[in-house]
Design brief:
The structure holds three protein chains of three kinds. By secondary structure, chain A is of the alpha+beta class. Chain A has five helices and five strands, in the order H-H-E-H-E-E-E-E-H-H. Chain B has one domain. Chain B is mainly alpha-helical. Chain C is 42% helix and 9% strand. A five-stranded parallel β-sheet of chain C has the order 2-1-3-7-9, with helices on both faces. In chain C, strand 5 and strand 6 form a beta hairpin. The chains are: A alpha+beta, B mainly alpha, C alpha/beta. Chains B and C meet through helix 1, helix 2, helix 5 and helix 9 of B and helix 12 and helix 15 of C.
Chain lengths: 145, 217, 355
């Protein structure tokens, strides 16, 4: 795949410009970020719903850059959560088990929901620990309510 | 067959047949009808230049009435120029003419076309209101005038709606736009829109005849 | 997945974490072209979704729709969705053949009467039932029989949706669409030749998630995918607005990626999601690869003149009729002028005689 793509790039095709959707996207991100900074709700943007010219996804990634946090989680294939150089703006790439991109999102929030430990998973973890620790199942009742 | 298929196919073909046959019918009939031999001796030689001169002089407002007809005169010019720009320089229109004539020409950006089309509609509506309210104009207007104006406004308005995707799906709007143009084509040879083909020949004819008789015009 | 299990229970039993499930829901919402704010609702619905039975019938078709579907670029989500439906009959994909296959179809119809989803690809020949049969049953009879107890029907591909290529002039088999025959069931048309794979799975996902059919346009297609034209979502649209058009497939304009309208692109009159979802793992779509849209998701796309003629150019074949009209018009004009002149001459002569 990689070889084919670089071979294609050798053909003298210059894509002059652009869908014109990047600037509005950046505006949307700025508005969303201001809202979050003032204590308001977060925003998720599905990059799959935007008509983008070839190479524009890469441009968006480059424009947003990379910030301090990068998290990788492994759930039904790898997912990379990358904070951009603008704190509070996250670039999320979901891949499947075959490493193919399934969906791309830009999330504007303090912490992407996906990174938080989920209650269901924690309950499951408690019972798993219970089974490993003799006599440790007394507390489980409280959690289940 | 969808509405758009009809508008692009048989509708377009038959309206063009009626337009071309009708215009040539009226033009041929009118020109040949006047070809009676004038036996009097001409007062002035060079009827060709006399005819051309009148085409030019009649294209400016007459001195005597200049003040009173200035609005009418220049808004008429503005309307025609705006109409021609939006008809002749919108790229999809050029592709239409190219399919008909075999050659095309460069177009203008859509923003300019949209603006000129909007200006054309505004001027024509202003002129229509004036025609309906001005006592003299109202008196000399008949149904033909109003039908002709409406049939020319319709393609402009439907064209703008189609361009802006307002009111319905684009294929439907495009079909309505084409059908409105076709209605105009069919009416063209038989109503006052025919002035487009007759204005200059009739000015030429008048100029040539004045010249021959020694009238200064 | 057992039939009595909900999807949530099934994923849980497969060791999928809540995070994995939320990721699956995000991808599914994206697949269904729902806004990300709907992920919560998708999660709630999918958690308790039950596994519907699906019967897939292939009539006059080229198998391109099935090929497209099996090359879907998001296998995890798709395979989960296919795990989550019970594909009880699909004569290209199923292992069973002959009587066993037909028995599976009949059993699924019996056991899930009123609840199963019927998927159809291909058109139905009504010129002569023998043009296309499966297990000795004509396509028409099999469709009517299978549709009778279906909850809903998904017509996959332009053939099943609108008749497609078999229906093209002169339509030798009398091919018609599903909606030409079945009038009393909800039908979702997923047109395209073939449809975009994720659109097929997106529609299945919608049915699985919400147990209902999505919002449809006037041609029965889901608005989420067919709500906007290719032209409206095309990244080359700014060139159209500026009047910059490729004149040939290899001129400077073509290399610069200018608009393909003049080369016959049918994007303005074609409704589909190619410009956003794209093909081959989201790599590109026809316009991205330098060829105009041929309008494959629209009815009768095969019979709308050349793929390489601009939309604004008429659909007639030649200029001869117009030249004929010109000649006829001139002849009538000359004739009427001559007639008028002779009338005038006669009148003048009569006046001279009488005076």
């Amino acid at each position: 795949m990689v070889n084919i793509m670089s071979a294609l790039e050798g053909i003298a095709v210059r894509v002059e410009a652009a869908s014109g959707n990047i600037t509005p996207l950046l505006h949307e991100i700025r508005h969303a970020l201001r809202r979050v900074a003032q204590g308001g709700e977060g925003t998720t943007i599905d990059l799959g719903s935007l008509p983008l010219a070839p190479g524009e996804e890469k441009r968006i990634e480059d424009l947003l850059g990379q910030g301090e946090v990068r998290a990788e989680l492994n759930a039904l294939g790898p997912t990379v959560v990358q904070e951009t150089r603008y704190p509070g703006v996250w670039y999320i790439t979901h891949r499947n088990t075959e490493q193919e991109v399934v969906a791309r999102f830009i999330e504007v929030t303090r912490m992407p929901e996906l990174l938080l430990a989920q209650s269901e998973d924690m309950r499951r973890a408690v019972s798993e620990l219970d089974s490993k620790l003799p006599g440790g199942n007394r507390d489980v009742g409280h959690d289940d309510h | 067959m969808t509405l758009l298929d009809f508008a692009r196919g048989p509708g377009l073909q038959w309206s063009l047949i009626i337009l071309i046959a009708g215009v040539l019918w009226r033009l041929g009939g009118t020109i040949l009808l006047n070809a009676r031999k004038d036996l009097s001796r001409p007062r002035h030689k060079g009827t060709l230049t006399d005819g051309l001169k009148v085409i030019a002089t009649r294209s400016l407002p007459a001195h005597q009435f200049e003040k009173r007809i200035r609005f009418q005169h220049f808004s008429g010019y503005a309307w025609h120029i705006a109409l021609f720009i939006s008809v002749l320089f919108f790229a999809p229109h050029i592709f239409f003419f190219e399919s008909l004539l075999g050659f095309g020409w460069p177009g203008l950006p859509n923003g300019i076309i949209l603006a000129t089309a909007a200006i054309a509609v505004a001027i024509l509506i202003a002129l229509l209101i004036r025609r309906a309210s001005h006592p003299v104009q109202r008196l000399i207007s008949n149904a033909d005038d109003y039908i002709s104006i409406l049939l020319v406004i319709a393609p402009l308005v439907t064209g703008i709606l189609a361009f802006a995707h307002v009111g319905a799906r684009y294929p439907t709007l495009l079909a309505v736009h084409l059908l409105s143009v076709e209605a105009m084509f069919v009416w063209f040879p038989f109503g006052k829109l025919m002035h487009a083909a007759l204005t200059f020949p009739s000015r030429f004819q008048a100029g040539a005849s004045y010249g021959r008789k020694g009238v200064r015009a | 997945m057992r039939k009595d299990q909900s999807l949530g229970e099934y994923l849980f039993s497969q060791g999928v974490s809540r995070r994995g499930f939320l990721k699956f829901c995000s991808a599914t919402a994206s697949l269904m072209a729902l806004p990300p704010s709907m992920v919560g609702r998708v999660a709630a619905a999918l958690e308790s979704a039950r596994r519907p039975s699906v019967i897939w019938l292939s009539f006059q078709e080229c198998t391109g729709c099935t090929e497209s579907l099996t090359r879907s670029h998001a296998p995890t989500v798709e395979s989960l969705i296919f795990d989550a439906i019970s594909l009880d009959y699909h004569h290209t994909l199923q292992a069973a053949a002959g009587f066993a296959a037909e028995e599976a179809r009949e059993a699924a119809m019996r056991e899930n009467a009123g609840k199963y989803l019927l998927v159809v690809d291909g058109s139905i020949p009504i010129g002569n039932p023998a043009y296309s049969t499966i297990a000795g049953i004509s396509n028409l009879d099999m469709l009517k029989e299978s549709a009778a107890n279906a909850a809903a029907i998904i017509a996959v591909g332009t053939c099943a949706s609108f008749g497609g290529i078999p229906h093209a002039n002169p339509n030798p088999t009398g091919a018609v669409s599903v909606s030409d025959i079945i009038k009393d069931k909800p039908i979702i048309n997923v047109s395209g030749c073939p449809p975009i794979p994720v659109v097929i799975t997106g529609v299945l996902a919608h049915f699985l998630t919400f147990g209902s059919i999505p919002d449809l346009d006037e041609l029965g297609r889901p608005k989420a995918f067919f709500g906007q034209s290719i032209h409206d979502r095309c990244y080359r649209r700014p060139f159209y607005e500026r009047g910059q058009f490729a004149k040939t497939f290899d001129d400077e304009g073509a290399r610069l990626g200018w608009c393909l309208y003049e080369l016959g692109c049918k994007g303005p009159t074609t409704y589909n999601a190619c410009a956003t979802l794209k093909w081959n793992e989201g790599t590109s779509f026809p316009i991205g690869s330098g060829h105009g849209c041929i309008g494959c998701s629209e009815p009768d796309f095969w019979d709308k003149g050349s793929f390489y003629r601009p939309i604004s150019a008429g659909l007639w074949g030649s200029r001869e009729a117009l030249l004929g009209a010109a000649a006829a018009g001139a002849a009538i004009g000359i004739g009427s002028a001559l007639a008028a002149r002779s009338r005038k001459k006669k009148a003048v002569a009569e006046e001279a005689k009488s005076s």
